[in-house]
Amino acid sequence: MAAFHPGNGTIERLGRMLGEAERIVAFTGAGISTESGIPDFRSPGGIWTRMEPITFQKFMASEEARLEDWQRRFTMNEVYGEAEPNIAHRALAHLVAEGHAQGIVTQNIDGLHARAGVPADKLVELHGNATYAHCLSCRQRFELEEMRAAITREGSSPRCACGGFVKSAIVSFGEAMPEAEMLRAYRLAEECDLMLVLGSSLLVEPAASVPRVAKRAGARLVILNREATPLHGLADLALEGEIGAMLAQIFPHLADQEH
Ligand code: NAD
Description:
The protein has about 260 residues and is α/β, with parallel strands linked by helices. It has two domains: about 1-35 and about 85-125 and about 175-259, 3-Layer(aba) Sandwich (Rossmann fold), CATH 3.40.50.1220; about 40-80 and about 130-170, SIR2/SIRT2 'Small Domain' (2-Layer Sandwich). About 40% of the residues lie in helices and about 15% in strands. It has a six-stranded parallel sheet with strand order 3-2-1-7-8-9, with helices on both faces. A three-stranded antiparallel sheet has the order 5-4-6. Strand 4 and strand 5 form a beta hairpin. Helix 8 packs parallel to helix 9 (about 210-215). Nicotinamide-adenine-dinucleotide (NAD) binds near residues 200, 204, 226 and 243.
């Protein structure tokens, strides 16, 4: 079992619950990465306060939307590349490495869980990954730099040799969820004894159903978020505050490794 260093009050309860659990599964959202400098969607200053999302349907229907989507992807990828995993990513990687956490289900596309050291077989990326692209028809993989060069050269959105549109490998709004990833997520949720939600508004479905499945299957539900979520009423413990400050009290040995 991992060595926990509980602080006081409700943080102490969080430390106790993490210590008592044997099969933790974490469910993370954009809020886990804001302290790494990546804006979330819904907070003040978040991405949605600045621009409308480009839905899958818009991407398929309009060349202008495709080119705009690519430009946004290139810009965001620079932000992701410059960001470093923070204490929360490190704490989850530590729990996985110790065998205390069975897996991490994330809605994030920024790649920070993997960069914190979580192996691919312990990581479920429900909304895909922004660091590469693929053909929407045959699923062949393409690298973003290749795509950037092709767009600059040709002035049009890239197509695969099979004729399909190429798009960054994230799941856009309106696009079907990856079935295998959803099944892996539900399996982890059904088998865990503590579901730890970090930094998600829990408003995006079907991803937000994962913590509900865990609770229904008998797991304890713990939510760490800046604000209340629709699942707060179901939670065994819900702490409102900054994730980094909360976890620094539980994992002080991971707190002084900021870059
Ligand atoms: P969201 O923006 O809907 O919710 C984020 C939640 O985290 C909010 O409730 C906010 O109050 C909270 N939060 C933000 N910073 C926090 C902090 N430091 N400490 C505690 N709480 C904090 O995000 P979501 O629930 O993940 O859903 C939105 C979608 O956004 C997801 O589908 C995801 O794919 C996508 N997204 C991902 C990234 C990323 O990969 N980093 C960034 C933006 C959006």
